Amino acid sequence: MTKILGLTLITRKAAKRLAVFFTLFIAFLIWAYFWMISMPGDSYTDDLLPLTQAQIDLRDSLKTDVVMLAEEIGPRGVLQSNNLATAAHYIEQSLEAAGYEVKRQCFDVDGVNCCNLEVEILGQTRPNEIIVVGGHYDSVLDRLNCPGANDNASGTAATLAIAREFVNRKPQRTVRFVFFVNEEPPYFQLQQEKMGSWVYAQRCKKREENIVAMFSLETIGYYSDEANSQAYPFPLGLVYPSTGNFITFVGNVGSRQLVRESISSFRKHTKFPSEGGALPGYLPGVGWSDHWSFWKAGYQGVMVTDTAPFRYPHYHKLTDTPDKLDYDRMAVVVEGLTQVVSDLANPDE
């Protein structure tokens, strides 16, 4: 009888411990959802509206820039140094035509002169608070003929478009538009001292510049209404949609405030599906662009993306050509991003 009572007590204690464990586990999942995944506002779910004339003009401008970079110029990287230089020259000319004075930050990589391109609008009342909007203009190196239309002529074209829209504005905060070189492997996270965004972010850190927000516009041109067109690293597929028709705002946990402010602004102004997350930076995809360099320098950074390899079937392939992009939807997204940058650049309005 004593043994039976002892076993019963042990069983009850084990059951209580198990109950406590599951309670804590469920509490953690609830906390994680509301802290990392739940975002302010609601994602747009109705049919997309016809483009306005302004959006049509923006669409045509985006397509022109993507075709120039990915088709007329083509593969752009250290191994295609002439094309890389031509792309930088095209971006520089485009910015000068809009009315900017372009600054180059150049450094040597394996004998090739590689340059970040920067333009700046000085803030009127908060000049020391800086917003960086950037996209990398190189294409993947491991496939010498990859044209890189979505990755990342799309982000480059978007950064150009927002810069053109801002040229005559007078924001409260300083706004910089930066076109980064050498985001792609083998430099990304492996030879980071050769990454344009790393070089740039480290200079910001050395100068003790107050970067309050960094946006990396990365692979933003592909959308699909087909069921199960969207994939995720586990376990994100349990909570995010399986149809790849949305734009994503993603940052690490340390960038949670910026993620929430950004997607809140986007949802307020833009009738387009959107998702967001402030997720652990080690999850696949979360840190896969130039915002990672800013995290490492101690700044908040958000990637705006169509999720790249988790949706786009032509990612880092020879078939990543301009005809694969949806310029209508891209125009709506870029117009929305312009408003996001405006809201963050003018926090007192």
Q: Could you explain the architecture of this structure?
A:
By secondary structure, the protein is an alpha/beta fold. The protein has two domains: 38 residues; 302 residues, Zn peptidases (Aminopeptidase, 3-Layer(aba) Sandwich), CATH 3.40.630.10. The chain is built from eight helices and eight strands. An eight-stranded mixed β-sheet has the order 1-2-4-3-5-8-6-7, with helices on both faces. 41% of the residues lie in helices and 18% in strands. The model has no long low-confidence stretch (mean pLDDT 93).
For the biggest β-sheet, the strand order reads 1-2-4-3-5-8-6-7
CATH superfamily of the largest domain: Zn peptidases
Structural class by sheet pairing and helices: alpha/beta
The largest sheet, given as strand count, sense and whether it forms a barrel, is: 8 strands, mixed
Radius of gyration: 22 Å
- Give start-end ranges of low-pLDDT stretches: none
Tell me which oligomeric state these chains represent.
single chain
Order of helices and strands: HHHEEEHEHEEHEHEH
CATH topology-level name of the largest domain: Aminopeptidase
- Number of contiguous helices: 8
Mean pLDDT: 93
In CATH, what is the class of the largest domain? Alpha Beta
Task: Name the overall outline.
Answer: globular
The percent of residues in helical segments reads: 40-55%
Task: Give the N-terminus to C-terminus distance in angstroms.
Answer: 76 Å
* Portion in strands: 15-25%
Tally of discrete structural domains = 2
Count of individual beta strands: 8
CATH-defined architecture of the largest domain: 3-Layer(aba) Sandwich
